Amino acid sequence: MSIPFASEKHVAIAAVRRACALTDSVFNKLVKNETLTKDDKSPVTVGDYSAQAVINTILSRAFPHDPIVGEETSSDLRTSSASSLRSRITELANQALGEDLALGEMREWGIGPRQVQTEEELLDAIDRGSYGGGRSGRMWTLDPIDGTKGFLRGGQYAVCLALIIDAQVELGVIGCPNLPVDPSNPNGARGCLFVAVRGQGSQQLTLSGSSPIPLSIPAITPSNLSFLESVESAHSSHSFNSRVSKLLLVQKPPIRMDSQAKYCCLARGEGGAYLRMPTGVGYREKIWDHAPGSLLVTEAGGTITDSRGELLDFGLGRDLGENFGVIAAGKDVHDDVLAAIKQAKLEEHE
Ligand SMILES: Nc1ncnc2c1ncn2[C@@H]1O[C@H](COP(=O)(O)O)[C@@H](OP(=O)(O)O)[C@H]1O
Ligand SMILES: [Mg+2]
Ligand SMILES: [Mg+2]
Ligand SMILES: [Mg+2]
Question: Do the Cβ atoms of 338 and 302 come closer than 8 Å?
């Protein structure tokens, strides 16, 4: 019998690897007019657009019937003033798609030398990510650059892809071009790839292609935690986390990092808990910001819920629904963290 999701895993790894090579090459050459501001005031770069074009091109060749819930759309690129952005995206995407085939990759996926997509085909590929999501069926969710602000700062960012079937995450692949391969050697080699398949565990590889290392979250006592949290205080409440850490007698300072690299670090034993509490009312978390990371954590033996202890629901559409935060931690400390959050919320209302 074949291993479940083996071909999806191969395709997803190839797509994320190629997109990471692209974003990595973009960073050093990014110029000011290659970044736009979206309607919600968040930044998007030629890197985000071309990475989504590359991954969607590969997915639609390999699995033509699978819909994709992707973060970006091409509408801002179709205006007359965006012609140089369009050319740059076309150049970058074709470069990434046209790289030589690596072991296990297939020309049928639209990759390899002399595979050329037109500008129009690439814009259409970006828009194949416009699916609305939902409770039933098979779909991919893609964040071509998660942590765009981190990417622009030269910090952490992640290329994130997940396969969801009937609202359950079955496969998650996350590429982190700037993440040190060995956490005990922060100045050593960078470029990690994380892969999780439901029921098959979580693994770390390198983007350059090393053999997989299985991941598991080690046991930790609450006072030894060091909370993983966003760099951006507008994305999750730093002050709430600091109150929770006081209640748990946490000694170590938080580890601030952009993107789902936080889930990756948690899965390989760093920090012990990731807290993402809402900063105000109204913002709804997006499924592409959590789908692959959540599977990586649970397959490494951890637990992920909202701050009330409810499981995240990936079947509500493009968003996760009303925002009660996201709490990921090792199994043994997750309850303690939830109890401290409950206490901190009570104190907040006193
Ligand atoms: N007010 C808000 N609250 C929570 N998350 C937000 C937010 N505004 C934007 N985000 C999300 O935060 C993500 C980055 O997370 P982090 O802070 O962990 O690096 C962004 O992903 P993108 O960078 O892909 O747009 C974006 O989707
Ligand atoms: Mg964004
Ligand atoms: Mg994101
Ligand atoms: Mg993004």
Answer: no
